[in-house]
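Objective 1.3, modelling of assemblies. Example input:
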Amino acid sequence: MARKVKTRDRILQTALALFNEEGEAEVSTVEIAGVLEISPGNLYYHFKGKEAIIEALFDDFEEEIRQVLSAPIKRALSIEDNWIYIYIVFEEINDFRFFYNNLAGILERCPDLRPRFARLLRLKEETAASILAALEREGVIACSRAEREALAARFAAHLTFWLQYVGLAGAESDSRRTINKGVYAAMMMIAPYVPGDRAAFTELLDGYIASQK
Amino acid sequence: MARKVKTRDRILQTALALFNEEGEAEVSTVEIAGVLEISPGNLYYHFKGKEAIIEALFDDFEEEIRQVLSAPIKRALSIEDNWIYIYIVFEEINDFRFFYNNLAGILERCPDLRPRFARLLRLKEETAASILAALEREGVIACSRAEREALAARFAAHLTFWLQYVGLAGAESDSRRTINKGVYAAMMMIAPYVPGDRAAFTELLDGYIASQK
DNA sequence: GTCTATAAATGGATAGAC
DNA sequence: GTCTATCCATTTATAGAC
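Predicted structure (tokens):
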């Protein structure tokens, strides 16, 4: 007996899909209601307006991404483990990409989200930094504290903007492939810090991305 | 006898300022006309609509950034020369930042700009690649072709998104300082490829940014 | 070139019936 | 919870006078 999905949830789900597809600015509350085949009035019963919908979607996103970023990475020192980990982060961002595609606009109209989003950025940096520190301890990479911090910041920025970047360069349709390229690019940032012959490391990466396509 | 500035130019100038300040989506044609103290009708005499204004602004931006990116860098192998060069690119982007702050939305409504913007991205990459190649030839850095290409792509992405990134982390007001930090971050991407003790190179950078603040 | 006036369309929002 | 009906505000866009 297929349990009836609550209208509130259907609104969120549909809004998310439309926002991701057409861009948040391009989607009106009327359109969302239209796709759902409910009345605008009904939509307004559940959410005071578009901002309320966006904030509710951000709640979901924040919870999920926090869970991913805060998950202690157990023995994630192999290339494979790190690859998968980064892949998952990208996937999460991809699911809420509408947000990243119009950050300035959304934060303008939902000022409450600004500090929360800034915190997420910091969490990304911290997570990257702690992974790098672990790699450093195990001798996988060798770099100074200053380098590690700069690298962590770059990492966070990469996670934040990569999907947008490929979208601009020319629409790549296959998201799995796109994300794998993003993971590859992330790993390449680490390569020069691998002691000894980093060429071997690079070749390992090349092999890995080839196997992923 | 102060030559009268053409209305068309005043529109572009005012629109650019408002777009940068409040975000393109937040500014209507009526508002632009209001600030200029001309009638909306008059504005529509000069431009068919907001899209036309945006495209005209993009024309200006494209011309200027092309000039900067295509300028042959003569003997730009010193830290100082490269620093200044990157600074100028950032400055140009900063002057038209409204565009970068709402890329998805603008490209949605002005599809003509999409390929042109993509070309600019490629130009950024090519420029970065050729600078890196020069540095390689002179022995300033040492890296493989694959590494150089990955680095060039990262460089282009950095130029594209850095200003947005700091804007999100917490609004830095002083643009000169922000840009200098962006240049520093760019230089730090090169550091690990400097042969010998890269620590010396890093210290040089630290000294340089300290002198710039 | 510039203005006034106004049309036409859209999106956000609410009241009140069912 | 949901709908219909409606209102208000904003924005784009045009016609025609000066």
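Residues 7, 38-39, 41-42, 45-46 of chain A lie near DNA strand D (CB under 10 Å from a C1').
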